[in-house]
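Why does residue order matter? Because the sequence determines the fold. Keep that principle in mind as you read this record.
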Amino acid sequence: MKTNQKKAWLFLAPTLIFVTVFSVWPILRAFTMSFQSGPLINLEWTGFSNYQYIFSDPEFWRAIQNTLIYAIFAVPVSLAISIMLAWFIFSKVKHSSFFETTFFMPYVTSTIAIGIVFRYIFNGEYGLLNYLLKAVHLPAPNWIDDPSMSLITIIIFGIWTSLAFDIVILMGALRNIDPNYYVLADMYGASEQEKFWRITMPQLVPTLAFLLTMNIIGAFKIYTSVYALFNGQAGIGNSATTAVFYIYNKFQMVGTPGVAMAATVVLFLIILLTTFLQRKMMKKIGRY
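Structure:
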């Protein structure tokens, strides 16, 4: 037994070293740096001054507010659309593998590249979206250069980019549902809506819990979309700033790594608490 344990630890050693160096150590280092100030090569211990700074910084609270609004709207809307599309493809469309591959393509495409394309789609003067809106006599706002529209633009883009991963995972979950459930439901004359709500949705709860967790974490870490849509900025007057963009700005642009790491620790705790509450909620839903 002891020999097997030694061999097991030997095989696990490369992975444990990799995880420690690239995951555990950066977290511990970030926590330590959050109590230090000064340039990166000459940090000095200053206690809780960085936390006092970010908690009194209106820009930090705006970043947290924007991130929360993005997560509250983008995550459930994206998940709801993904469920509808996945169910439609699974139940109504023949050769669903073709559509599944098509939907998955944005997931393996660079967010920066997609963001550049969407920057032209959202353009207020010659963008495709405003062209279509004008064609049906609807208001055509300035999606990129209007501060009041910046967050809405990010939410729309975030919903679109989330669909690819969600649909593919949901399609896999739908295939794993025992078809005998639907055969019995047809025997008793169940409608399509009854089959969806009484069979499909309960079976999808574990998958939805996984997707909800991943999407919430991804929403709180949103940065690339903002960078791509607004050409390296956070919108007009930082109207589209997010928590990670705030961290990037303080670390890379302003040169205050201690402040950036303090914001990182706060964001980590927010994600941890939100994920914990979401998991508890999904467990209660799964019991019914």
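The chain is about 75% helix and 0% strand.
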